[in-house]
Fold:
Amino acid sequence: MAIGSGKLYIIGIGPGHPEMMTVAAQKAISESRYIVGNNTYLDQIRPLLSGKEIITSSMGKEIARARDALGLASGGDVVTIISGGDAGIYGMAGIVLEIAEKEAADIEIAVIPGVTAASAAASILGSPITGDFAGVSLSDLLTPWEDIEKRLSGATAADFVIVLYNPKSRNRNTNFRKCVEIVRRNRSGSVPVGLVKDAYRDGQSAIVTTLDDVLDFDDFVDMHTTIIIGNSESRIWGDRIITPRGYHRKYRY
Ligand code: SAH
Structure:
């Protein structure tokens, strides 16, 4: 790859609403000549894109997009490549850095964090995470299903709050059901579960239920849903979930 003076920003745009995007991510866009991303995410930030050159491709074309962005930056331009949520959590940061490493790219690369689906969904549910948690993607496109099962079992046994990303897609309709069965083996059925669809987007909706009843909402769950399974201390308060941090063990309040 040619030596250039360009710069590549890898940004997360947050869950969807412009107010949920960091100022640093907005600055990266305004500094850039080229914006690279897929159409779903570009649509969420349209007002920020006027005057920008847009390079777009569909979902599943991440490697091509990463190469495009690196190529433009290596040519001397300032470029932003965008992910939903946080770019470092099931986002573009990993693949872009992998390719940059392989090609020994000689450009400045800055990863700008974003509000990930876990914290977006958690904020709508109250405070269901609070302490230690494990994020698990149920997509077996890039991770073997056996590994996903192993991680789910381990996280359940260790009493982590579990945040599920990619619970379903057109071709993976049963992964969520299988996941609930695995978690249920080692976690009480009364444990709270929160489902948040389209957090901070039009049509946002949330459900608070329990592990025993969550499969009643199987049809609600889709590829725009994040699910938070509480731990043994989590409880439901009205339409919220609270996981105590542990202050009650030390203080009276
Ligand atoms: N990089 C993204 C995650 C990409 S994986 C991030 O940090 O948030 C895509 C999955 O994220 C979706 O299947 C869904 O589980 C979750 N997700 C992303 N945006 C969401 C939103 N606005 N509301 C609910 N879930 C969301």
